[in-house]
Amino acid sequence: MKCLSNEELKRLVEIARPTSKSGKIVDYIPALKNAEQNDLSVSIYYPDGPFYFAGDYLKKFTLQSISKVITLALVLSESGVEAVFSRVGMEPTGDPFNSIVKLESTRPSKPLNPMINAGALAVTNMIKGKDHKERWDRLIHFVRELANDPYISFNREVSDSEYETAHLNRALCYFMKQHSIIEGDVEYLLDVYTKQCAIEMNCSHLARIGAVFAMDGYDFTMGRQIVSKDIARMCKTFMVTCGMYNASGEFAMKVGIPAKSGVSGGIMGAVPQKCGIGIYGPSLDEKGNSVSGLKLLEMMSEKYDWSIF
């Protein structure tokens, strides 16, 4: 079932919006502190038909951890499954996304999955290129291709803010370098990674990227296969099992779609063979997920019968 109208979607947004009061804006990334707690917007992109939206859906925000899905798709395309998963695992974790605990307690000392910070850093380290500048160029070109917008870039203030406060990520990198999970200069890696997290777009862009994954890597608008069906499937599987941090199990029960959140308040959804979803609501719960975004997705999934389970 598709949305009946933008007015219907607007009503759902207004029902979900008040829940933002129960969350808070992320405070450990200084450049994100000034977000408006009450903001909530959504776009739904159907490859074969209408485009729906509600709220300030053209307002830009940074991808943060949503970028992990995109980088994973790029690196899997470049290096293959065997190379990627020799350094990163496939298992969910109940620990926080920035935890170092499992790195210390498992052998070999590789991250459990690509959606936690350690795993994402290891994946970003595998982007091909002769230096960190070329690796960044490859990544942003891929993002622009997915979003079909050559002007997408990153927010310098946010990336600088994250780079200057990335002490825990530095610790994760040096631990993994000690165990040969990552290679090269840690500061160059963090330069790419913080830019990756600071890639800036709106709900419309995000919904379009979600639609590419929903349609098995195929871009119906441009008539081209951007990533292979198998890679799109793997990315969606990680979104289901690990995409909402350590609330992924509850999210699977209540919403039941592949999705990935970020601490800026963004959520990308990919309803298989149906549509892509982009949401922005910067007020977060204790797990790091958008409070009003989760409520909105729960209502939409029930109304439009989106759950894959």
Q: Indicate the percent of residues in helices.
A: 40-55%
String of helices and strands: HEEEHHHHHEHHHEHEEHHEEEH
What's the arrangement of strands in the largest beta sheet? Answer: 2-1-10-9-8
DSSP E strands, number:
10
Distance between the termini: 16 Å
Radius of gyration of CA atoms, rounded to a whole number:
18 Å
> In CATH terms, what is the architecture of the largest domain?
3-Layer(aba) Sandwich
Assess the beta-strand content as a share of residues. 5-15%
- The first-level CATH class of the largest domain is given as Alpha Beta
Pfam family, one: Glutaminase
InterPro entries: Beta-lactam/transpept-like, Glutaminase
GO molecular function: glutaminase activity
Family: Belongs to the glutaminase family.
Could you characterize what this model shows?
- It is a single chain.
- By secondary structure, the chain is an alpha+beta fold.
- The chain contains 13 helices and 10 strands.
- It has helices at residues 6-16, 67-79, 81-85, 101-105, 117-125, 132-147, 156-164, 167-178, 186-197, 203-214, 229-242, 248-254, 291-304; strands at 41-45, 51-54, 61-62, 153-154, 199-201, 218-219, 224-225, 259-261, 266-271, 275-280.
- The strands form 3 sheets. It has a 5-stranded antiparallel sheet with strand order 2-1-10-9-8.
- Helix 5 crosses helix 9 (186-197).
- 53% of the residues are buried.
Attribute tags:
Probable Glutaminase Ybgj, Chain: A, domain 2; alpha+beta; single chain; 10 strands; 45% helix; 309 residues; globular; 13 helices; three-stranded antiparallel β-sheet; Beta-lactamase; five-stranded antiparallel β-sheet
